[in-house]
Amino acid sequence: MAEYRAPVADMRFTLKHSAGLQQLAQLPQFEDASNDMVSAILEEAGRIAGEVLSPLNASGDQQGLQQQGSEVLTAAGFRDAYQAFIEGGWGSLQFEPEHGGQGLPYVLSIAVMEMWQAANMSWGLCPLLTQGAVEALACSASDALQKAYLPKLISGEWTGTMNLTEPAAGSDLSVIRTKAEPNGDHYLISGQKIFITWGEHDMAENIVHLVLARLPDAPSGVKGISLFLVPKFLPDAAGNPGTRNDCQVVSLEHKLGIHASPTCVMSYGDNGGAIGYLVGKENQGLACMFKMMNNARLAVGLQGVAIAERAYQHAVEFSRERVQGRAAGFDEAGPIIRHGDVQRMLLTMRALTEAGRALTYDACASIDWAAQNQDPERQAQHAVRAALLTPVVKGWCTELAQEVTSLGVQVHGGMGFIEETGAAQYYRDARILPIYEGTNGIQAMDLVGRKLIFDNAAGFNALVSEITDDIRRAEAGGDKLHAEALRNAVACWQTCAEFILQHQASDPQLAGAVGQHFLMVSGYVCGGWQLLRQVVACQSDEEVSAPYKEGKLKVCNFYFQQILPRIQGHADTLQKGSEAVMAMSEDEWLSGIG
Amino acid sequence: MAEYRAPVADMRFTLKHSAGLQQLAQLPQFEDASNDMVSAILEEAGRIAGEVLSPLNASGDQQGLQQQGSEVLTAAGFRDAYQAFIEGGWGSLQFEPEHGGQGLPYVLSIAVMEMWQAANMSWGLCPLLTQGAVEALACSASDALQKAYLPKLISGEWTGTMNLTEPAAGSDLSVIRTKAEPNGDHYLISGQKIFITWGEHDMAENIVHLVLARLPDAPSGVKGISLFLVPKFLPDAAGNPGTRNDCQVVSLEHKLGIHASPTCVMSYGDNGGAIGYLVGKENQGLACMFKMMNNARLAVGLQGVAIAERAYQHAVEFSRERVQGRAAGFDEAGPIIRHGDVQRMLLTMRALTEAGRALTYDACASIDWAAQNQDPERQAQHAVRAALLTPVVKGWCTELAQEVTSLGVQVHGGMGFIEETGAAQYYRDARILPIYEGTNGIQAMDLVGRKLIFDNAAGFNALVSEITDDIRRAEAGGDKLHAEALRNAVACWQTCAEFILQHQASDPQLAGAVGQHFLMVSGYVCGGWQLLRQVVACQSDEEVSAPYKEGKLKVCNFYFQQILPRIQGHADTLQKGSEAVMAMSEDEWLSGIG
Question: Number of folded domains in chain B?
Fold first, then answer.
């Protein structure tokens, strides 16, 4: 099985032109992010991803995890790989130098993060969660907590988790029951949490759990939830892991995919209460989780791009090697990549992946700009832009990962269904992406409810005008065909948005019933915009190779012909409203059984 | 986990109105297929599917199979279930009384077959393959072979397999290398076959392999392939299993799904040659396989419908029980089925499933009519109709099974990714369907190449005029809205067909590049036609319940609003031709890596 090779050329180009990394690097705080430094980081991370993590992907899937009492043993090689990650300082790229970070742009860390996820999604979830914990603590925790925990989390010596879900509290966090009792300078936490990714493992000396829980006098609902830091080992006076805290893994889930990533049932306070420290203010736990959750959603969209890239590379390699049948235009049997249907599948995979990458990096760059811009108004604009794009990145890029990994199986024919081939693992692993960090149904509601309706389309209109500027630029550069197609697509998107804005007040079911269609139209339109912008940028970029430039043009062309037309069906359906969706009566759902 | 409940009401209705079973029952040879008899068969088969097979589905998936030397042990309960199947005579419904069959319509056996596949796809593959072997032998084998083998295969005492694929010969059978040496009244077969479903197992006393192989002097390519019957045990003088033949299982594949169905590497002739008997004429093996393969393709489409139904029932049950969040229009938290996005997912599952069922049963009824009609011209028309619909049923119904089983996972949220829930198994099992019995890429080529272009659209035009009659009927019945929508959809389909017919000569890549889009448009249009015809039939059917009638109307309405609009994107793309699909140069496929 060929190992993953980081698509460094496309990452570098996308960072430069879609994420504006060169502009970011002109800020004094990012002066280290020179072209050369960026290339060096991408090349070295790519090497580790390809040589260290990728070879552990299939073996990790096969071996899975072993629970021994309250310990979880990871698959062979995982610990060593994680040690290499710590030693390379790969967890610290984007964080504040104050706590040991390298102070590089967030979006650069996103390109590197894509590599870990593509090479080994199970393994990659551990640093992904840790970085989320750093973000939550950096945003909300007291100085003392930050000082005690951030350096260890940023270095990767300790890892982090998010503890939100309980058996009765999944998408609806308002019914969380885990308790926190004040007890001197800390709290005693008790309750059960489920679906805790990397909740227990043997790769790091300590694990820092961020736990949502309820104080005794807390108001009911989401306004009574607080956030606590609960370390597996309480730091001793020297800051090293000391006393074992009263929290442990109860069991591991048996899952469809990501077999090497421990998904834990965690129990807190079986022996009197786990010691926890309040992060942020009482009853404002969800607000503290907010930044972490938003960035985690972008990261999950990124995982979709990553696994799509992996599936694409695998399918290209196979279809070049597998000889079967005589393709049209050839005299003899040859590799299946010659067949039209195979090329259609491969290009669909490629076009969705590159569009998704560009959109994700662009959205993540807005996080950088929102944090770094000195002008509060511009800062707010970037924040609104990032907020608008977040559900699109999470929802659309994870949906496309389903399609791309399924096509990856299909390109392999019968071999695709055989586990040893590897294509099936991407397909299984990818299936979690539309589910965790808020299902795509939740993303669609967020997009339509909070980001469109509540905002009265201000952010949406700003994005449309940004896209319109890019369309003019493409037109001025001579690409009238794609410019015209994108203009029509944007008009279609606007019609959808207007339909929702006009009808939402009179139809409370609308957002739920058609939200997914709006999300998909948004994704396809934004994906087309990103690729067209890249084609325009290609024309004047002297640093890219001829095959890269030609390939990008063809990918964009394919996207506009084969992918973008999908919006028509979604838009048409959306404008039918909620009536047909909400029509069924209770006794009709299973009326076919009789 | 709730067990499968056969959708007897929808099956009965679909047999009656989509497959014209009442008209078939007016033929003297089918006089046994009375309404009462059909109901009794469906009810009893449904009971066995729900009570015997369904409970073994998850346990079979978990246990998988055990190979011990040249034996394969099936999962607990599988043997007993198969014994019950034999004792009930369930394998004999549609076969000739001459060989022990019950002489009932093929399409009735299809409804029963749907139940086995829905209840337990792994198990269901065994009778599915056996019935395929019966069809091939009944069509092509000598009287002596038929007499020796058909009664045992029809009773189910012996099971059958198809041996086509070899490591280098998958979609392209022309390069088959398995050899057959003439040796007196039989042949000696030697070679290796892969992907042999139920190639070895412990459920029956004998296994009858149908093997494609090449005679010493055979012409190269597909014109040099012959078909041989190779029994695991040679029948003794009394017709019972005697001497063990020189064929055995080498290994079992480790697959993404259908874990309880043995997928065997088979070796023939390790000890001098397996004794085989020629079926049909020398070098005409593919023609002999033809009928078997066509019906097997319909059966695989049926499996798509079956597993979609199972996933749908599971998702409805879960979403009625799982309480999470307050839905729009409600004052308090309730079951997730109240949410718009959940209803959208469930109705998408339901609408695709019922449309797929109606289309599949209708196509299968054409097989009956083609066999039973006395008028050769009408017979030929039915045969052309069945041939045209076969790739649509196989391709479209298996694609929809991917979407439906994925939505089934999604409705479950985080629980969907946990194997114990069961939704993930349907998703894994279903993934084989677009691959085996000719990948969907092959189906698309068959539809566009053989069934549209080669036929110069004669069969296509006949089907369009049949649909147009049904549109008029719907209009006359007052359903102008759906009639108009279907008329537009048919016009769009015709435009696609005309585009292909006009451009295929000048563009040899066209069929490969856009075939899949034509297949999907064909499926969606035919699915809409089927549901509209059912709605019209509902109006005058006194036998169906009010919830069934209301449910069908709402399903059709949903389909026309939420599913049918998808054809726009496919049709638009198809008419762009092959250029963007076939554009990539060799050095551009991985140009993103750099």
Answer: 1
Residue A510: both structure tokens together:
């609308």
A235, A241, A245, A247: CA torsion to nearest 10 = 120
- For residue A31, is it within any domain? no
Give the Å distances, CA to CA, from A112 to A43, A106, A297.
Answer: 10, 10, 17
Q: Hey, is the C-beta of A426 within 8 angstroms of any chain B C-beta?
A: no
Which pLDDT value is given to residue A290? 79
- CA A131 from chain centre, in angstroms, equals 13
Q: Please tell me the predicted confidence (pLDDT) of residue B376.
A: 93
Which residues lie closer than 8 Å to B245 by C-beta, 6 or more apart? Answer: B230, B231, B232, B233, B234, B274, B275
Average pLDDT over residues A81-92: 97
Paired tokens of A48: 């580790």
The CA radius of gyration of chain A, in Å to the nearest whole number, is 24
Residue B132, phi then psi, degrees to nearest 5: -65, -40
On the question of pLDDT at A388 being above 90, the answer is yes
Answer yes or no: are the C-beta atoms of A513 and A504 closer than 8 Å.
no
For residues A398 and A133, the answer to whether their CB atoms sit within 8 Å is no
Angle between helix B376-411 and helix B423-430 axes, rounded to 10 deg:
140
Average confidence (pLDDT) over A522-527: 98
Distance CA(A324)–CA(A435), nearest Å, equals: 37
Q: Nearest CB to A512: which of B341, B409, B594?
A: B341
The Cα B357–Cα B365 span in angstroms is: 12
On whether residue B471 sits in a domain, the answer given is yes
Q: Please, what is the end-to-end C-alpha distance for chain A in angstroms?
A: 50
Please name which of B305, B298, B373 lies closest in space to residue B135, comparing C-alpha atoms.
B298
A291 min Cα distance to partner chain B (Å): 22
CB-closest option in A9, A170, A558 to B594: A9
Q: Which conformational region is residue B69 in: left (phi greater than 0), alpha (psi within -120 to 50 degrees), or beta?
A: left
- Average pLDDT score over residue span A185-194: 98
The Cα–Cα gap between A15 and A6 comes to 14
A437 is catalytic: yes
Q: Round to whole Å and give the CA distance between A586 and B10.
A: 17
In chain A, which residue's Cα lies nearest the Cα of B316?
A: A589
The position carrying tokens 């957002």 is A511
Assess if residue A148 is contained within a domain.
no
- Which tokens in the block code for residue B501? 């017919």
A/B interface, count of CB pairs below 8 Å: 328
DSSP annotation of A183 reads E
Amino acid at B313: Q
Query: No. of H helices and E strands in chain A?
Result: 18, 12
Q: Please give the Cα distance from A513 to A253 (Å, whole number).
A: 32
Answer yes or no: is A471 within a domain: yes
B551 and A515 within 8 Å at the Cβ level: the answer is no
- Indicate the residue of A194, A573, A584 with minimum beta-carbon distance to B554: A584
What are A318-358's pLDDT values in tens digits?
A: 999 999 999 999 999 999 999 999 999 999 999 999 999 99
- Name residues 311-340 of chain B within 8 A of A (Cβ): 313, 316, 320, 323-329, 333, 337, 339-340
The encoded tokens of residue A226 equal 């607080």
- Phi first, then psi, for residue A112 (nearest 5°) are -65, -40
The CA-atom distances, in angstroms, between A354 and each of A351, A490, A585 are 5, 20, 43
In terms of residue numbers, what domain contains A564? Answer: 440-580
Residue by residue, DSSP assigns A477-498 as TT-HHHHHHHHHHHHHHHHHHH
Which pair of tokens denotes residue B479? 């359903």
DSSP A324: -
Distance CA A326, CA A322 (A): 12
CA–CA distance, B574 with B566 (Å, rounded to integer) = 13
Distance from CA of B511 to the nearest CA of A (A): 8
Report how far residue A373's alpha carbon sits from residue A380's, in angstroms, rounded to the nearest whole number.
9
